[in-house]
Design goal:
It is built from 8 helices and 4 strands, in the order αααααβααβββα. It is an alpha+beta fold and about 170 residues long. It folds into 2 domains: about 80 residues, Orthogonal Bundle (Arc Repressor Mutant, subunit A); about 80 residues, 3-Layer(aba) Sandwich (Glutaredoxin). Bound molecules: FE2/S2 (inorganic) cluster (FES). FE2/S2 (inorganic) cluster binds next to helix 6.
Amino acid sequence: MKVASAIEGARAVTPGPDKAIDSQTTEILAHFKGEKGELIPILQQVQQRFGYLPEQAMKRIAEFVHVPPSTVFGIGTFYAQFKLVPTGRNIVKICWGTGCYVRGAPRIISEMENKLGIKDGGTTPDLEYTLETVACFGSCALAPVVVVNDKVHGRMTPDAAKKLIDKKS
Ligand code: FES
């Protein structure tokens, strides 16, 4: 994703200053000295606290470590561990690696997209689910694999995958 479109995406969900984001960012920054080398650990803590990197927090971080905001947005965009928009409380990852692909991953992905009403990388409007595809979990013997909130489910079928969601609904 390009930095400009990522920034637009972040703006779409962060319409204005939020006192809670501001105070919690201040709380996190209090544990750091304001050095450039602290940028990634700070972003990791902010990501952990909010589940994504709010634009407002990224601007504060940029000032704190004395770098342009574009540097912070660039890092937030580059590393897969960081999200610029809120993610769901439940993260559903479907393996798209070769082993899973040949054993039926495409149907699982398409049925899960239909069930949740979102596409790969999307989040349901109620922030309950985020759907992602992943290259390979390293559990190819269990293909096709679906991971829900870090719990690995192997030898999935489209119906079994949908039941994982039903259990949580
Ligand atoms: S290809 Fe799916 S876990 Fe490796």
